[in-house]
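Why this split exists: single-chain examples teach little about how molecules sit against one another. For that reason, every record in the complexes split bundles all components of an assembly together and asks for one structure covering all of them. Below is a record exactly as it appears in the raw files.
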Amino acid sequence: MSTMEHKLTNTNEMVFTAEFHSLDGNGLEKAKKYADRMRGWFDGVNATDNTAAHAHASNVATAIAIKQLGLEPIMQIVCRDKNRLAQQADIMGASMFGVENFVALTGDDVTAGDEPEARRVFDLDGPQLVRLMNTIKRGEYMSGRKIDPAPQMFIGAVENPGAPPFEYRVERVAKKYAAGAKFLQLQICYHQDRLERFCAGVKDAGLAGKIAIIPSVVLVKGPRPLNFMHNSVPGIDVPAEQIARVESASDPAEAAYLQTLEFAQHALLQPGVRGLHITDFRNDETLERLMTDLGRVRQISTTEVKDDHAYSA
Amino acid sequence: MTTFIATIEHVVKGPVWGCQDCGQCVLHSTGMTCPMNCPKTLRNGPCGGVRENGHCEVKPEMKCVWLKAYDRTQDWPLPSTWKAEYNHLRPPVDNRLKGTSSWKNFFTKRDRWTPPGWKNSTDESIASGVEI
Ligand code: SF4
């Protein structure tokens, strides 16, 4: 049983997860640096699957690297790039190396990436992929062919509380829950009212306590990434006052940090929320600062931290 | 005969519903909105990329297919049994049926075939799992 699964099913503790950086050249070396930085803070780190439709080292290889570096991977699988056969192969391949946490998502469209001419696959959609994962967990491929022993799996999905149609997002949660998702990592949402409404909706649907809600925050250095997300990432809307707050501050980096901290604290108070997912674009000491400010204690002896300095990706 | 039915179906459903001839029609459960017009061909609801104005991540000029489906399911006077199916988990597309007549597949029940692994994963078997 993965640490995440254990904490979410057997305890009332919050879980903290983070986005592992995507790996390109010299990937293993970089993976070591990232892992050392995250070690001791997180219950799971996401091995991403061609984020924003850009090719990188694969989700499977990244998940295995994370595992071998002593952290617990959460392997993302998107529906954009592979058909159901390849997705099953990836799950089985990763589980051979002890990867247990899996998260299914639709994935950005190919047109969001740098190879918009690529064929989009979407053989399955997000909820179908969740159910496929659950099928494997039960010990069968989609075809019904037996898998013995069945791999150990903890299955999650993703939802965006900040994109329309808002009421319907909750119904999507119910669907993913019924398909077998036990946790739900949320996309970043800069509207606190939308997150509140989403969590309240999940609670009203009787799903709080059945599916663990894990909202996201993003650590940024200033207004630029906020503007970028607002203008260029479909599904993410950053209210003008949130951008202005960072833009007009005498110390934008500090203002951006405090904004993230505030969003994190707010998210952790919502009903059904069982943790927080952190994406760190800053690559500075604020990852540690955020965790400390949230009252977390690093689960590691300092001698184990080999390279804990800020670095540039 | 089979091709004939498929042609009639295409002629009727193509212009009205933007039918993509998937051969396993779910229009009744999606507010008469064909999910195969979603650029990602999602059959179980919208992706996370829906724009602030409700338009599609991929085609900004088009309203998200799933917003349309949602609104129509609420607003149109469709049979309640159809509306009730809106939130059903629709199974993966059977790619062998592409281009065949969904009317025929409906009457022969061919469109309700799902792979055994999928079928065995009933909602009940999942919901009885451990609680978080
Ligand atoms: S925004 Fe709507 S129509 Fe566009 S890809 Fe996403 S789900 Fe499909």
